[in-house]
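User: Batch of two.

Assistant: Item 1 of 2:
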Amino acid sequence: IEANRTKGTRWARSAVALKHDEAQRLLEALDANARDHWYVLPAPEDLELYSGEKNGAEMQGKGTYAFEDGTRYEGDFDQDRFHGQGRVVWPNGREYRGAFENNDMMGRGKLAINGMMQNGEFVLGLLEGSGSMRWPDGRIYAGMFQHGVPHGNGQMLSPDGKSYNGEFARGVPHGPGKMTLPDGRTRTGVWHEGKLASQPPPEGATQPEADPPSAPESE
C-alpha cells in the first residue's frame, strides 16, 4: 500500500508493505479525505514475505523469510534479523546450515556450493579457523582456514592416494611440509606456492666440510 501526502507546499511519498486483506481493512477505516492519498498496489510475484513468530511488528522467534530472487531462510529471528540457528537455500542450489549473527553466517556451520562441502567456523560467510573442505573431484582438506581458503597447518588428501601434511598459504602448500606419493615415497622440505623449494639431505648423508679459514698473511 502506498501514499502521497502533502506537507505544507511539499509532497512526501511513503509506502508500507501489508497483506492484501490488511490493506483493504486499513482503507476502509480511513476517512474519505485520507483515502484519496492511499491506494493498494498489486503484490508482485517476487515480493519478500515472512511467516512465523513475531514480537509486535518485529520478526522474533522461529520463522521463514522468502526473498524476491527465490532465496529462502528458515530458522531463528531476533529483532527482524537472522540470529541463532538457521538454514538458507539459494536458487542455484547453494545451501548453508548453522549459526547466524546479525544476518551474517557467523559461527559453526556447513555450506554446500557447486558440489563442494565446507564445514567449520564461519565469519561473515567464509571459513575462518579450524574446518574442513571436500571438493567435487574427491580432494579433502582438514585444518586451518583464512578468508575461506586453506591457510595455516593442515592436511590435504587426494583420491589417487597422494597426501600433503604441513603448512598452507592462500590455498596451496607453502612452508614446511611432507608429501606422500601413492607409491609410498615421500618428499619433505619447504614448499613455496605449491612447489617444493628445498629439502633436507637424505638421512645418513655427510655434509661437505667447509674449508678452514686461511691464516692472515704476514706483512
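Item 2 of 2:
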Amino acid sequence: MRATVVGGVALAGVTGLLTVLAAAPAAAHTQLLDSRPGDGAVLATAPETLTLSFTDRLIAEGSSLVAAGPTGAVPVTAVGVTDHDLTAQWPATAGTGTFQITYRVVSADGHPVTGAISFTVGGPSDPGGTLRADTGGVVVTVAAVVVAVAVVVALLWTRRRTASRPDRP
C-alpha cells in the first residue's frame, strides 16, 4: 500500500512539474501593451499612423501588419519596427467604418506572436475580412487542466482500489 501511495504522489509531482514547465514558454512571449488607436476605439477621423506597443523588443524580420475594412484589404504603408513598437502609415483613402488590424511580431528572443485589434472611423461596419488572434495560450491552459483532472482521477482510483483490499501481512 505504501508503495502505491508513494508512486501516486511521485506521479502527481512529476505531472505538476511538467505542467508548469509546459506553461512557462507561453508566459514568456511578448504581449501587446497598448495600441494607438486603442482596441475598440471609435474615432471621428482616421488616424495618420498605427502604433502597436509590446512588452519586449521586436525584430523586423518576420513582423507584419495587415488591415481589413468594409471594402476589403486596406493598403497600409511604411510598416516598421522600432524597439518595442510596430508602426504603419494609415492611408487617407481608407474611408470610414470598422477596421481590423492583424499583426504578427517576432520578439528579440525569436518567438512569433499574432493577434488583432479593431477600431472604427465614423460609424461601425462589418470588416471585409475575418482575421484571427493567437490562441496558443488557450491550448496550453486546456492541456494543463486536462492533465490535472487526469492526475486527480488516477489518485482517487488508486486510493479507492487500495482501500477496498484487505491488509496483507
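The beta strands are 32-36, 41-43, 49-54, 58-69, 72-74, 77-82, 85-89, 97-107, 112-121.
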